[in-house]
Amino acid sequence: MISSSVSTCQQAGKALTSWNEALPKAEGKTLEGQLSQSSNEIEAIKAAVYENLRAMQREDLEAYLATLDPGSPAFEDTKALTQDLFDTYDLKIELNSVQVINTSGNEAKVRVTETTRKIAGPDFKDNITTGIHTLRKSNGRWKLYISDVEKIEYLN
């Protein structure tokens, strides 16, 4: 599944993702050094992640889907699951950290950590999720392509 709220969908029997902020080393050079020339590109990648989260918070399915790569093999499942999520829960999702860990041409990997808490709805485990979003450029804009969960810590 594709999303900034992977843990939420995982609790619904599916899978989504999350983010983090210290730059690792990549092939002997710091990623920060490799990316310093393209800080606008890094900001555009992060902006795509933030917009994805804002659309989730507003429960705006159209805006949310606009942040996803329509070519993703998970697009249709994500669309259906997200609508169900919006219909079932009212959640507060906080993006704790965002770290661009790799870029290569039209693809970027971003580690995120987010906290998701239930405001209203049926049983739900509040959690902190860390995962990797893979973004791809689609028509000149960064879009979430797929997300993988690295870790979920349940808070209740």
Largest sheet: 4 strands, antiparallel
Mind telling me the CATH class?
Alpha Beta
**Total domain modules:** 1
Largest beta sheet: strand ordering: 3-4-5-6
* Amino- and carboxy-terminal Cα gap: 24 Å
Task: Assign an overall shape.
Answer: globular
Which band does the percent of strand residues land in?
Answer: 35-45%
- What proportion of the residues is helical, as a percent range? 25-40%
- Pattern of helices and strands: HEEHHHHEEEE
Q: Total number of β-strand segments?
A: 6
CATH fold-level topology:
Nuclear Transport Factor 2, Chain: A
Number of helices: 5
Indicate the CATH architecture: Roll
| Radius of gyration over C-alpha positions, nearest whole angstrom | 15 Å
User: Mean of the pLDDT scores?
Assistant: 84
Uncertain runs: 6-30
Structure class: alpha+beta
Structure, explained:
The structure is a single chain. With 156 residues, the protein is an alpha+beta fold. It has one domain: Nuclear Transport Factor 2, Chain: A, CATH 3.10.450. Helix content is 33%, strand content 38%. It contains five helices and six strands. The protein has helices at 6-11, 31-35, 39-58, 61-66, 75-88, and strands spanning 25-26, 29-30, 90-104, 107-120, 127-138, 141-154. The strands form two sheets. It has a four-stranded antiparallel beta sheet. It has a two-stranded antiparallel sheet with strand order 1-2. Strand 3 and strand 4 (107-120) form a beta hairpin. The longest helix has 20 residues, at 39-58. The two termini are 24 Å apart. Mean pLDDT is 84; it is low at 6-30.
